[in-house]
Predict the structure.
Amino acid sequence: MSATARRHAVAGPGTVVVVLCLGGLTAALTQTMVIPLQSDLPRLLHASASDTAWVVTITLLCAAIAVPIAGRVADIAGKRRVLTGTLAASTAGSLVCAMSDSLPPMLVGRGLHGVAFGFIPVAVAMIREVVPASRAATGIAAISATFGVGAAIGLPLSAWIVEIGDWHLAFWGLAAVGVVVLIAVITVLPGVEGRSSGRFDLVGALGLALGLSLLIVGMSKGSAWGWDSGRTLGSLVLGLLTIGLWVLMELRTEEPLVDVRGSAELPVMLTNVAGIAVGVCMMAHFIAVPQLLMLPVATGHGLGQTILHTGLWMAPGGLVMMFLAPVSGRLINTVGAKATLMLGIAVIGVGYAVALGLMTTPRHLLIASAVISTGVGIGYAAMPTLILDATPPSKAGSAVGVNTLMRLVGTTIASAAMGAVLTGSTQTFGTVDVPTEGAFQLCFLIGALTAAVALGIAALVPRHDAAKGALALTEDSVGVPNQATTFDLPPSY
């Protein structure tokens, strides 16, 4: 623990990691608890299906905007303040959703849920300051695994609540959890001042928000609007142009929201590109496998599971991510973050091969999902380490935030791509069209090919060179410059 953190600490590093993981789990639950409700939202909120689709889109949109902003603000104002703010926003969102019976307040609450995603990169960056180097990798792996654990707990729990009682109970429960974790964050986490003395780049934040909004809306609504429609193409083109102009502006800004030049350095850039690919791999199976499980047996390839049973079949895949966190940390400390990332991606590829060859029973899909989740957990644990190894402490929050954003971009791409595949090849079943068996096979094939591409990208990531700008550190002062000793810097729907 750094000297500054030690003066403000009220708990040991292990307790701090547990609280940070609980915060990450709370953020993950806000994303997964709503999934079992999606088909019923038009009836529950008295709105059309196209309008209620924004209940998911608005969360993703706000998350993409909040993640890089939270990272930068944490570097300036201090990490505990940002962690407290994101959790407070998430808890307020849960309360709003719990009291909602119409679409407008539900969208407000779900937008606040998106802010919760800003917790993850800041928590990862805080690990660097409060945990000894020998244990930092395991802590980061545990926080990264909360995405999977959130899915493992949230999906069956929400489905069970919907089946036995009022759907509002799910959000009341989230609010209660949020209050408890918020109190823990305020009372347990050390208060450490921000490492950057710069000002907040408001213009850069607005430009990034506009560009990301256009891109995410275009990708999210492409299936509904039509991929060749003017609205879809206009959103995507304007989004790309806005992001391009934003990059040029950030390069000319003395204290930018995102260090574009640092992000363009080879280790960071390749890790972020790999993050997009791994995000695609994670979301692709979260979309395809549940639909295949719930499809009626009479279709010839569906497995006829209820929403609750589907959540239970998916749960082991998420839980295995948490159980493997110590293994991921040990791998990073022994063979290095790059080799660990490559191993995780290779495991993802094996999982999709299993899914492609064995999709005839729920048990087989459970195995495939668990293997894919294992690879995602290992890969997600390694990526923040690679980013932190190549980033100075004063920009750690922002850099990890950008990497988290790239994963979100990957999940958005996967949602759009898998949606297009599953709606593009259908068969008639009764009065509705359902995806064909070939459509699911194509989804798994895309996942396997994406993993192959990601593996090639990860192989190109250069190893960290301690001779180039390495900070002088001691294990007891992680992230704090010290003139005594020099070694490599230690290491998330």
